[in-house]
Amino acid sequence: MAKTLVRELDLPVIDLDGLTEAETASGAGNFALTGALIQANAGRYVAGLSLASNQLFPGGVKLIIDTTGDSSGVLFTLTGTDPDGRPLVETKTSISSGATYTTVGYFRTLDSFHADGATADDVTLGTVDEAMSASVHLDYGYRSGPPLITAVVTGTVAFDVQESYNNIADAYLTASAVQSAQGFADIVLDKDSATIDFANITATDAATIRSGATALAVQVNTYTDAAEVRLSVTQSSRGA
């Protein structure tokens, strides 16, 4: 008998100033999170939830800081959680006038955006078209062979399906463990070294996960607003 896990990835709205809108810091402190993507009355960002949308995205997105003036010497700190809900803190020191900074990490939530000093001019914070799904744990005690994944795309999306061989459940017993440290890498065809990159597909495509993988995740490299990915993972029981 086979069982299928389905993950609906309704990708979050892209809004370059959707978290903080043109605010100048007069000294050390938190920027106001009052943009269009901030939850009503919550004062925090949750991927996919906003004043305009209530479709929770099971994962995280990259954020972008934009500075009008020279913020050299200012330390910016973003505090929230990663795609799996693990604590995530990212810092950036010195952003020059007119420059932007896109986070390395993917934020499922953002609780605070802090500067350790005054900024020369306005600073904005928003989201870009890069996202990472939460980890999909595979039942490797159940299957008789490698799982089959199927992706159905709506809109324009470029993404990779990645796999991990780490024991994520045990790793997450450690408070400091984060998704980015769990060894996710591009899927390779079974017994083949060629990587699968479902880039800009607009129909169904499928691939086989290598035997022994414990989890997978979808890394979205670019997408358009309202795009969706429907991921199905089919695993066969040992008696199938």
How does this model look, in words?
By secondary structure, the chain is mainly β. It has 2 domains: 2-7 and 133-236, Jelly Rolls; 13-128. Helix content is 2%, strand content 43%. It has 1 helix and 18 strands. The protein has one helix spanning 168-171, and strands at 2-10, 20-23, 29-30, 45-46, 59-67, 75-81, 87-93, 100-102, 109-115, 123-133, 136-137, 148-154, 157-164, 185-186, 198-199, 205-208, 215-223, 228-236. The strands form 3 sheets. Strands 2, 5, 8, 10, 11, 13, 14, 15 and 17 form a 9-stranded antiparallel sheet that branches. Strands 3, 4, 6, 7 and 9 form a 5-stranded antiparallel sheet that branches. Strand 6 (75-81) and strand 7 (87-93) form a beta hairpin. It is elongated, with a radius of gyration of 19 Å. It starts with a strand and ends with a strand.
CA-based gyration radius? 19 Å
Q: Structural class of the secondary elements?
A: mainly beta
User: Kindly state the mean pLDDT as a whole number?
Assistant: 81
> What summary fits the major beta sheet?
9 strands, antiparallel
- The total of beta strands comes to 18
Number of domains: 2
Q: State the helical fraction.
A: under 10%
Low-confidence stretches: 188-204
Distance between the termini: 5 Å
User: In what range is the share of β-strand residues?
Assistant: 35-45%
Shape: elongated
Element order, helices and strands? EEEEEEEEEEEEEHEEEEE
The number of distinct helices, counting runs of at least 4 residues, comes to 1
